Amino acid sequence: MVFYFTSRCGKYTMYMGKHKEENEGLIKYGLPEDCWFHVDDLSSAHVYLRLQPGEALDDIPTDALLDCATLVKANSIVGCKKTSVYIVYTRWKNLKKTNDMVDGQVGFHRPENVRRIQVEKNNFIVNALNKTKVEKFPDLAALQQDRIREMQQEKKQHRREEEKAKKALDLEAKRAKEEFSYDRIMTSDNMTRNSEFEATADSTAAEEYEDDFF
């Protein structure tokens, strides 16, 4: 079972597993757009924020960031009793899971890409988010495969568009080159004709001059 929430701004979906067993599935079958949140140094739920395609950590609005941090704190047995706690978050793709780790435990491929913020208890936000709470039983593996195929199609379409644009540019460059060559030929031909005309004119003038002289 997975619990889904909608951010207060209405733009983002957040989700978390009911138990640590569900957390394992979420760790394994996340999407590239997912961002992971957890209470630092305390046991808590794993909350995920699904970003919009192309968004980065720095693009997360302050309100959405506060929603996720507050939701994580509220779902920590120890953290929910504290006035404030620290929350760590990073992209799903930065999570590292090894065979020697227990359920729910994760590491990071790049620790330097993990962010840390402090959050205080906020029942108003928790209540607002709980009103949007929906329970689902998604096929996480299938959802991940669907997204991977979708991204592959997007990449193929992007490559096709790039190739089409490149061909258009190459064709335009070829036409410009041909027009430039044609203009040079015409200019050269005109210069030859003008030279012949000037030479003929000079010759005629010389003959007329000689006739007048004799």
Polypeptide structure, described:
It is elongated and about 95 Å long. The protein folds into 2 domains: 2-138, no CATH class; 140-184. A hairpin with a 6-residue loop joins β1 and β2. It is 49% helix and 19% strand. The longest helix is centred in the C-terminal third of the chain and has 74 residues, at 140-213. It has a 7-stranded antiparallel sheet. By secondary structure, the protein is an alpha+beta fold. It starts with a strand and ends with a helix. The mean pLDDT is 86. It contains 4 helices and 9 strands, in the order ββαββαββββαβα.
Helix content: 40-55%
Order of helices and strands: EEHEEHEEEEHEH
Q: How is the main sheet built?
A: 7 strands, antiparallel
Rg? 35 Å
Low-confidence runs of at least 5 consecutive residues: none
Strand order of the largest sheet: 8-5-3-4-2-1-9
Distance between the termini: 119 Å
Q: pLDDT average, as an integer?
A: 86
Strand content: 15-25%
Overall structural class, as computed from helix and strand content, comes to alpha+beta
* Coarse morphology: elongated
How many strand units?
A: 9
The number of helices is 4
Q: Please tell me the total number of domains.
A: 2
